[in-house]
Design brief:
- This protein has 351 residues and is of the alpha/beta class.
- It is 24% helix and 25% strand.
- The longest helix is centred in the C-terminal third of the chain and has 14 residues.
- It starts with 34 loop residues before the first strand and ends in an 8-residue tail after the last strand.
- Bound molecules: NADP nicotinamide-adenine-dinucleotide phosphate and zinc ion.
- Zinc ion binds next to loops.
- One of its GO terms (molecular function) is cinnamyl-alcohol dehydrogenase activity.
- This is Enoyl reductase (ER) domain-containing protein.
Length: 351
C-alpha cells in the first residue's frame, strides 16, 4: 500500500464489540499529508458487521458519512465542511493494474476500513467512533440533495450491488429481466438501482410479508416467494441476470433455474458456510456464477452521483449508539426495513 499513508495515534471516543455491551475503543489516527479527518455523523450496520461480531473477528463498521474537519496538504480536493463518505476501503498499493484502473478493491494489498493493518503495523477500526482519519483517495463526496443518514448504507450496500450491475452490462442497457435474491440492506438498494436503470425487477424472498412494500415503495415488478415451489416453477428461464444478496447458507440450484440460457448469477452475499452449487442447472442452461466484492472508488463516486441524480437513498431506521446490541439482534432475526444506521453524533440529519 502507499507507504506515505500515515495513521493511528490520535485518541478519539469510540465503541467496539457487539456481543458484549459497547466499550470505548479510543482508536483513531493522526491526520497525515494524504488524509482528511472526518467528524462521523452516521454509520450503517451491514450484515458483515454481524458475521464479524458473531465470529468474534473484530470491529467492522464501514458505512460512514460525516463532515471534513481537517485536510492534509495533498488532500486539497476536499475542504473543511465537505459532506463525505467512507466505505470498506482504507488503503491499497496505488500501483498495480487494479489500482491503476480504480479497482482498488481487488488490489492484493488492499486494507479494509475495519480490521485492516497498515504498513506501519497500525490497525483500522472503522466508523464506530466520533472521528475517523481517512486517506482522501478512499473518500467520496455526497451529493448536496441527499440526507446523510439514509446515504450511509450506500457506502457498502450501495456500491456492492452497483458494481456487479455495472460490470455485467446492466447500466445503460434498459429493459433486462433482473432478479434480486434476499430483500435486505443490499437487496433493497439493488431493487431501486434496477428500477432506476430501466429493468424489470423480480424479488426472490423467503419473506412473504415483504411483497407489498417490495412492489409498492421499492417499485419491484414481481415478487417470488423462494420457498414456494409453484412460484419458482412458474419463473423458470425468465431472468437475464440475478444478484444474490442472501446472508445465510442456501442452494443456488433452484435460483439458477430462473435464469435464461447463458444467464449470469452474481453472488455478493457472504454466508460463513459454503453455498450449494449443483452442476445440472449450470450445464443445462450454460449459466455462469460469479462473485463480486464491494467496488472501486471511481465506481463509488459514480454511484453516489447517480443516486443524487435519481434521488436514491436507503430505507433506514436511525438508532442511538447505545441501542446497537438490540439492533444487531433484530438484524439477525431479519427484522429491519432495511438498514439500521447509528446516529453517531447524536443530531438530526439536516446537513
Ligand atoms: P441483510 O440486510 O440481513 O439481508 C440479507 C437478506 O437475506 C435478508 O433480508 C433475507 O431476505 C435473506 N435471508 C436471510 N436469511 C436467509 C436464509 N436463511 N435463507 C434465505 N434467505 C435469507 O444483509 P445485508 O447487509 O444485505 O448483507 C447480505 C450479505 O452480503 C451478507 O452476507 C453480507 O456479509 C454480504 N456482503 C457482502 C459484500 C461484498 O462485498 N460482497 C458487501 C456487503 C455485504 P428475505 O427476507 O427477502 O429472504
Ligand atoms: Zn458492508
Amino acid at each position: 500500500m502507499a507507504q506515505e499513508t500515515q495513521n493511528h495515534t490520535l485518541s478519539v471516543s469510540g465503541w467496539a464489540a457487539y456481543d458484549s455491551n459497547p466499550i470505548p475503543s479510543n482508536a483513531g489516527g493522526e491526520n497525515g499529508v494524504n488524509d482528511v479527518t472526518i467528524e462521523v455523523l452516521y454509520c450503517g450496520i451491514c450484515h458483515t458487521d454481524l458475521h464479524y461480531a458473531k465470529n468474534e473477528w473484530g470491529i467492522t463498521m464501514h458505512e460512514i458519512t460525516g463532515v471534513v474537519i481537517k485536510v492534509g496538504c495533498n488532500a486539497g480536493k476536499f475542504k473543511i465542511g465537505d459532506r463525505v463518505g467512507v466505505g470498506c476501503l482504507a488503503a491499497s498499493c496505488l500501483k498495480c493494474e487494479f489500482c491503476a484502473d480504480s479497482q482498488e478493491n481487488y488490489c492484493d494489498q488492499m486494507q479494509f476500513t475495519y480490521n485492516g493493518i497498515f504498513w506501519d503495523g497500525s490497525i483500522t477500526y472503522g466508523g464506530y467512533s466520533n472521528v475517523i482519519v481517512a486517506d482522501y483517495r478512499y473518500v467520496v463526496r455526497i451529493p448536496e440533495n441527499l440526507p446523510m443518514d439514509s446515504v450511509a448504507p450506500l457506502l457498502c450496500a450501495g456500491i456492492t450491488v452497483f458494481s456487479p450491475l455495472k460490470d455485467n452490462g446492466m447500466l445503460g442497457s434498459p429493459g433486462k429481466k433482473m432478479g434480486v435474491v434476499g430483500l435486505g440492506g443490499l437487496g433493497h438498494v439493488a431493487v431501486k438501482f434496477g428500477k432506476a436503470f430501466g429493468h424489470h425487477v423480480t424479488v426472490l424472498s423467503t419473506s412473504p410479508s415483504k411483497e407489498t412494500e417490495a412492489k409498492g415503495r421499492l417499485g419491484a415488478d414481481d415478487f417470488i416467494v423462494s420457498t414456494n415451489s409453484q412460484q419458482m416453477q412458474a419463473g423458470k428461464r425468465s431472468l437475464d441476470f440475478i444478484l444474490d444478496t442472501v446472508s445465510a447458507q442456501h442452494s443456488l440450484g433452484p435460483i439458477l433455474e430462473l435464469l435464461k440460457v447463458d444467464g449470469t448469477l452474481v453472488t455478493v452475499g457472504a454466508p460463513d458456510q459454503p453455498l450449494e452449487l449443483p452442476p445440472f442447472p449450470l450445464i443445462f442452461g450454460k449459466r455462469s456464477v460469479k462473485g463480486s466484492m464491494t467496488g472501486g472508488m471511481r465506481d463509488t463516486q459514480e454511484m453516489m452521483d447517480l443516486c443524487g441524480k435519481h434521488n436514491i437513498t436507503c430505507d433506514v431506521e436511525v438508532i442511538a449508539p447505545d441501542t446497537i446490541n438490540e439492533a444487531m439482534d433484530r438484524l439477525a432475526k431479519n427484522d429491519v426495513r432495511y438498514r439500521f444506521v447509528i446516529d453517531i453524533a447524536g443530531r438530526i440529519s439536516n446537513i
